[in-house]
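hiii so um. not sure if this is the right channel but i have a protein structure encoded as tokens and i wanna go backwards to a sequence. like what aa goes where. can anyone help
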């Protein structure tokens, strides 16, 4: 469990998402932990792990605190309510199956959101390459802005996003990163990627704390599982955060979406053979689809083999 949580936490440090979406399925699939116990133990571990990345983004100024406030207004009570709903359903096989299916739905939504996020990043990169025409002032490969753009906060929709995300987090432990950041992309498309991640990480701290408290009181929290997760996740998220500026973010995002989809199929009880064929089909179709998008946006057809999401070659990023 410690080794698995270490690997998952590296992904969290690199992408800002994927903690619950990967950790909980890992516990259920590979270690045979009951879904409710996996959700409870994972949330408590995440409540200790999340502040690490949040502190980094707060220091860099890539957090919109107004958005954080309105998200928390909806997510904190909803997360606690999600725990109570899961508890009220009981611990029978039928309840575990409901939680597992809900987790599968959340994973599918998260994987879809990552794909949407990648398309939006590709569009932004294409616009950056046409800076000479005056459509944008950013050059391709330029570092992300450290100042938050001036956005008009929409309180009610933002609080509703927090409430829906909090309810899902309370029941499944998925959504504090993968789901809410997708909703933020839809509501506030002018926020840059690092600002979206920073804002989401900070709002996730009180959200996860609320859900974790509910699971300690009413869920199926198991200290040995949480301790094993913390042994691996704390150093893992630190290492992931350290190397995130050098790793090709686009490649990490694609790999994460692939793993999320595989985990979702497993949660739905899909057999091994159909799962393998479905994943092979996606491996074949996804690069072709991505190449078509690049051509449509006026980018080199096969640039996705060489470049990260900021447009720079991978070797240049490492140097």
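sure thing!! here u go:
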């Amino acid at each position: 469990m410690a080794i698995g949580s270490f690997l998952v936490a590296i992904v969290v440090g690199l992408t800002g998402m994927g903690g619950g979406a990967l950790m909980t399925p890992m516990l259920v699939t590979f270690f045979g932990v009951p879904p409710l116990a996996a959700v409870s133990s994972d949330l408590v571990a995440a409540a200790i792990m999340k502040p690490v990345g949040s502190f980094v983004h707060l220091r860099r100024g890539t957090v919109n605190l107004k958005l954080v406030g309105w998200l928390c207004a909806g997510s904190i009570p909803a997360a606690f309510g999600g725990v109570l709903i899961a508890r009220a359903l009981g611990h029978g096989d039928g309840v575990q199956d409901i939680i597992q299916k809900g987790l599968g739905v959340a994973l599918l939504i998260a994987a879809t959101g990552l794909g949407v996020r990648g398309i939006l990043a590709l569009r932004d990169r294409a616009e950056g390459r046409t800076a000479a025409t005056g459509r944008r002032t950013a050059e391709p490969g330029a570092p992300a802005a450290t100042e938050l753009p001036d956005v008009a906060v929409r309180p009610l929709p933002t609080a509703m996003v927090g409430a829906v995300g909090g309810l899902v987090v309370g029941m499944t432990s998925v959504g504090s990163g993968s789901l809410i950041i997708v909703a933020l992309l839809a509501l506030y498309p002018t926020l840059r990627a690092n600002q979206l991640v920073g804002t989401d990480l900070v709002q996730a701290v009180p959200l996860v704390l609320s859900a974790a408290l509910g699971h300690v009181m009413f869920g199926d929290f198991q200290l040995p599982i949480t301790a094993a997760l913390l042994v691996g996740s704390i150093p893992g998220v630190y290492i992931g955060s350290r190397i995130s500026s050098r790793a090709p973010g686009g490649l990490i995002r694609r790999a994460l979406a692939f793993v999320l989809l595989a985990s979702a199929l497993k949660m739905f009880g899909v057999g091994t053979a159909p799962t393998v064929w479905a994943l092979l089909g996606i491996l074949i179709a996804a690069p072709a689809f991505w190449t078509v998008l690049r051509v449509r946006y006026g980018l080199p057809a096969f640039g996705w083999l060489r470049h990260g999401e900021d447009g720079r070659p991978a070797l240049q990023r490492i140097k």
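oh and Residues 2-318 form one domain.
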